[in-house]
Amino acid sequence: MSTSTDTLARVLGLASLAFGVPQVGAPDRVAEAVGARPGADTRDLTRGVGVRELTAAAGLLLRGSSPTFLWSRVAGDVMDLVLLGRELRRGGPGRGRTIAATAAVVGLGALDLTAARRSTRGGAASGDGLELTAAVTVATSPHEVYDFWRGLERLPAFMEHLQSVEWTGEGRTRWSAKGPLGTSVSWDAELTEDVRGEVIAWRSLPGADVDNRGSVRFTPAPAGRGTEVRVHLSYAVPGGRLGATVARLLGEDPHQSVEDDLRRFKQVIETGEVVRSDGSPEGTVARRHLLQSPAQPA
């Protein structure tokens, strides 16, 4: 990890310490300072936020630029913004202080996100990688399924997390995807295995925002029922195991996402499109499908 990232992490650790001590020791004064309404619930919530800050401070000051504790600060910033947004909607005489506190959290959150992304790019801690596998059977021949997947630029049509895939040269592509907590990540990749009708495999190149590799294997299904498509993905999770846990709490379970992607792929390869509700025509971009209601007959 670079010295600048370690320095920024320690500064953020000191900031967590500076915020956490008064939140735990004088929660009523802190709540008043940010324009929150007084009360037992506010006091307990402020103390809880303070404990979270002190935990992050201990981790960053003792372990330096740990991706886990840096991403925990990013998650904490999101939680703080939600709580401050609730106070803003309530209104009241402390609205001006709440707006100022929100602006401060946004600014500090930008620093947290910068440090977290730098720490992740520098290499996730050992054991923080995530392995995903899923399979689906489609009523199409292995060669037809292979030909579809070989056009990697078509993947965002059914893979919800992908934003774009572009060919940049022989066997090389540029990928862009949604990252944690509303961020975006990108990387260059190269094909590592390419056998028509059997397998396509790729891996990210050095300098990727998230190190990853993947493969798709195509095997004839029993009794001539088409093709079994088996996907295997491996990548460093931003924030390690904590990042994966936060993602699940926000409704972004990686395993479920891959299974959903394959379900949409089955619809595309067999019918030519993802089945959409006539009452919510969100188009063909996979990430928009999450906004739709169940499909119904026209």
Mean pLDDT: 78
Per CATH, which architecture of the largest domain? 2-Layer Sandwich
Please name the fourth-level CATH homologous superfamily of the largest domain: START domain
* Number of E strands: 7
Helix/strand structural class = alpha+beta
- What is the radius of gyration? 23 Å
Number of domains: 2
For the record, give the distance between the C-alpha atoms at the N and C termini, rounded to a whole number. Answer: 56 Å
Strand order of the largest sheet: 1-7-6-5-4-3-2
Sheet with the most strands, sense and barrel status: 7 strands, antiparallel
CATH class of the largest domain: Alpha Beta
Shape: elongated
Contiguous low-pLDDT stretches (5 residues minimum) are 123-127, 245-251, 279-292
Remind me, CATH topology of the largest domain? Alpha-D-Glucose-1,6-Bisphosphate, Chain A, domain 4
**Percent of residues in helical segments?**
40-55%
Discrete helix count: 8
Write a compact overview of the structure shown:
This protein is α+β, with helices and mostly antiparallel strands and 298 residues long. It has helices at 3-25, 27-33, 40-63, 67-90, 95-121, 142-150, 240-249, 254-271, and strands at residues 129-138, 162-169, 172-178, 184-195, 199-204, 212-220, 227-236.
Could you describe the 3D structure shown?
By secondary structure, the protein is α+β, with helices and mostly antiparallel strands. It has 2 domains: 3-121; 129-291, START domain (Alpha-D-Glucose-1,6-Bisphosphate, Chain A, domain 4), CATH 3.30.530.20. Helix content is 48%, strand content 21%. Strands 1-7-6-5-4-3-2 form a 7-stranded antiparallel β-sheet, with helices on one face. A hairpin with a 5-residue loop joins strand 3 and strand 4 (184-195). Helix 1 (3-25) runs antiparallel to helix 5 (95-121) and helix 4 packs parallel to helix 7.
